[in-house]
């Protein structure tokens, strides 16, 4: 059974081999939000997702690779990516939660009004029947 260090070295070697066979075009195809898709990387290298974050040498190598690709123009710069994401992101509406609560309360009150109208209709029918009989209350 391989030790943790041996697995880390094997994962680093697999990552380096994967990088060696990639072209700028292939890096462009696995770009998402200005970064390389982590899922595509760990699947292609044959290790788990946690390796990309827990192995410091792979993490540093990946960050360095992305920086090199940004300098070459393969990946967009981080400021461009954030600007694009910022313009597309919906604005937070602080009044939306109060509107939701108000609409729930309104629906509840409308239901209560309908129930009270139904009861009132029954009492009106009862009052008419008493009047027809001629009972005095």
Helix content: over 70%
What global shape is seen? rod-shaped
**How many extended strands?**
2
- Secondary-structure element series: HHEEHHHHH
* Helix/strand structural class: mainly alpha
* Largest sheet: spatial strand order: 1-2
**Largest sheet entry:** 2 strands, antiparallel
Radius of gyration: 33 Å
Strand content: under 5%
In whole angstroms, how far apart are the ends? 95 Å
Query: How many domains make up the coordinates?
Result: 2
- Residue-averaged pLDDT: 83
Tally of helical segments? 7
Question: Which keywords apply here?
Answer:
137 residues, mainly alpha, 2 domains, 7 helices, 2 strands, 76% helix, 3% strand
Summarize the structure.
It contains 7 helices and 2 strands, in the order ααββααααα. By secondary structure, the chain is mainly alpha-helical. Strand 1 and strand 2 (35-36) form a beta hairpin.
Walk me through the structure:
By secondary structure, the protein is mostly helical. It has 2 domains: 4-87, no CATH class; 101-137. 76% of the residues lie in helices and 3% in strands. The chain has a two-stranded antiparallel ribbon with strand order 1-2. Strand 1 (31-32) and strand 2 (35-36) form a beta hairpin. The protein is rod-shaped. The mean pLDDT is 83.
Blueprint (SSEs and pairs):
Elements: H1 4-21, H2 24-29, E1 31-32, E2 35-36, H3 38-45, H4 49-54, H5 56-72, H6 78-88, H7 96-133
Antiparallel strand pairs: 1-2
